[in-house]
Amino acid sequence: MSPEIYARWAPKLGDAVKHVGAAIFVVALLIVGFWGGHFLTSGDTHESSADGPPEEPPPLASLVTLTPEKMASADIAASPVEEREVNAAKTVAATIEYDASRFVSLRAPVGAVIDTLSVKPGQVVSEGDLLATLSSSEIALARSEIREAQSQTRLAQIEYDWRRSTHDNLTALLNTLQRRPSVAEIEDQFDQASLGAYRDQLLTTYSQFQLATSVADRIKPLDEKGLVPGRMAEQRTSERDVAATSFKTACEQSRFESKRELARAEAQLDVAQRQLEVNEERLRLLLGPFADGVPGDSASQFQVRAPLAGRIESLAVAPSARVAQGEPLLVLADTSRLWVSALLHQHDWDALRLDPQPTVRVSVPAMPGEQFEARVSFVGAEVSAATRALPLVAEFDNAAGRLRPGMFAWVALPMESPRRSLTVSPASIQRHESQPFVFLQESADTFRRVDVKTGLETAEYVEILDGLKVGDKVVDRGAFFLKSELLLEQEEE
Fold it and tell me: How far apart are CA 482 and CA 70, in angstroms?
């Protein structure tokens, strides 16, 4: 290397050597610190490992005995283990609703004026009680048409009765005339019978026929003996034949005319009766099924009566108010039975097929800890396009009136067939290190811890699969106090 090049690069090489040496020194310190710490702590580690694995906490004791003072303050109670039906259930949201068959929204059947209101909101009424009185010109017109139809019906009935009586008497008279009685006998027999114009028509022709017959019969022996001219006998015979023909014609004509007039009267009566029925039906349709007339009052007034026993939920009108046809008057409902309505989604459709008459358990947030049993009335057949679910409706008794329509509720759907199993109260179950256990009462102040295997757990009960038997007295109040006593005893030891 030439002197010039060495002189140029010598200072730079010296600086590089200095930097490299400093870096090596730092790395050496890090290595020494790591391995030094490792060797310093390795002795402790080996020493602790030689002592064996860490000790597990001692198991919880099995018996606890309380002093009289603690028994008094603990308020402990025990109940025997019972066997009951259990089944898994799924809870879905629901709503309390009116029973549709016990809910009526009464509306004005026609345009009317409210004359009087006999009820107020919240009032309890019985079936048939008067609710309101209204007036309507349309009702007055319908009643006027009914009265006119009634008059026409009465007139038609009188006409028919007359024609019926006349026809029956005429038939009896024609039957009597066939026996050829005397005119005096006929008049005596049918003196009080109604025959109308047929009396004169028939009796006149019958008298003429009888007279012609009598003359012809008297002249016949004289003609046979030659005491009278033959022409006279023939004339009397001809007169008898003419009279017989006239009498027969009168009988036939009378019978026909009587039947025709009777049929006409019957048809007129039927038309009048049908018109009356039509007018009465029109009035019934105008009034509606819950309205009734007001005897003795104006023709325009009518009453609205309660179709069922229940409570007035709301009033939509006031006295003297004018309402149009179809406008609401009031809402009447019987809340002694209510519906709970829920939505049953597709994966739950088989839940209620387990029982031919299924029941569900209902709870409401407003009454924590309480449940009500409801009987399923129906499950809808059409899936809602909005919710993709079927409507489920169950009915339950609400005679106490504690539940109200519109309340939110939970419905527990049974998801399996019920089975018999041992159960205890949820308050009886305690846990330690994830192990469930209960306390059995051995004596008045001594209690024994027993590990159990649990199954189905609900807010009402816990299923016991193993560890207990029917009749065991399990602490269901104060179990946590006993658990605390066991833990204290363990710490003291």
Answer: 10
The yes-or-no verdict on residue 165 having pLDDT over 70 is: yes
Spatial distance between the Cα atoms of 327 and 109, rounded to a whole number of angstroms:
8
Which residue matches tokens 């016990």? 102
Torsion-angle region of 110 (φ positive above 0: left; ψ -120 to 50: alpha; else: beta)? beta
CA distance 340 to 447: 44
Neighbours of 355 (CB within 10 A): 13
- For 158, 166, 275, the CA distances from 155, given in Å and listed in that order, are 5, 17, 13
Nearest residue to 137 via CA among 300, 252, 4: 300
Angle between helix 197-224 and 137-177 (nearest 10): 10
d(CA 379, CA 375): 12
| DSSP annotation string for 57-116 | PPPPPSEEE--HHHHHHH--EEEE-EEEEE--EEEEEEEEEE-GGGEEEEE-SSSEEEEE
Using alpha carbons, list the distances in angstroms from residue 480 to 202, 436, 485: 116, 12, 9
pLDDT in tens, 199-209: 888 889 988 88
pTM strictly above 0.90: no
Q: Give CA torsion, residues 201, 206, 211, 217, to 10 deg.
A: 150
Closest CA to 381 of 373, 371, 389: 389
Measure the N-to-C terminal CA separation of the chain; round to a whole number of Å: 87
Distance CA 151, CA 82 (A): 79
* 348/20 Cα distance (integer angstroms): 77
**What number of other Cβ atoms are within 10 A of residue 30's Cβ?**
9
Structure tokens at 236: 């009397």
The overall longest dimension of the chain from CA atoms, in Å, is 212
Residue 63 CA, distance from chain mean position: 57
Tokens of 162: 């007359």
Name every residue whose Cβ is closer than 8 Å to that of residue 298 and which is 6 or more positions away in sequence: 135, 140
Please say whether the beta carbons of 164 and 146 come within 8 A. no
pLDDT in tens, 263-282: 999 999 999 999 999 999 99
Q: Which residues contact 189 (CB under 8 A, 6 or more apart)?
A: 176, 181
| Cα 100 from Cα 152, distance rounded (Å) | 44
Tens digit of each residue's pLDDT (9 = 90 or more) over 355-387 = 555 788 898 988 887 888 898 888 777 777 777
Q: Where are the beta strands (DSSP E) in 99-193?
A: 103-107, 112-117, 124-125, 130-135
If phi > 0 it is left, if psi is from -120 to 50 it is alpha, else beta; for residue 296 that is: left
Residue 425 contacts residue 410 (beta carbons within 8 Å): no
Quick: pLDDT tens for 95-119: 999 999 899 999 999 999 999 999 9
Taking Cα atoms as reference points, which of 265, 270, 305, 272 lies closest to residue 289? Answer: 305
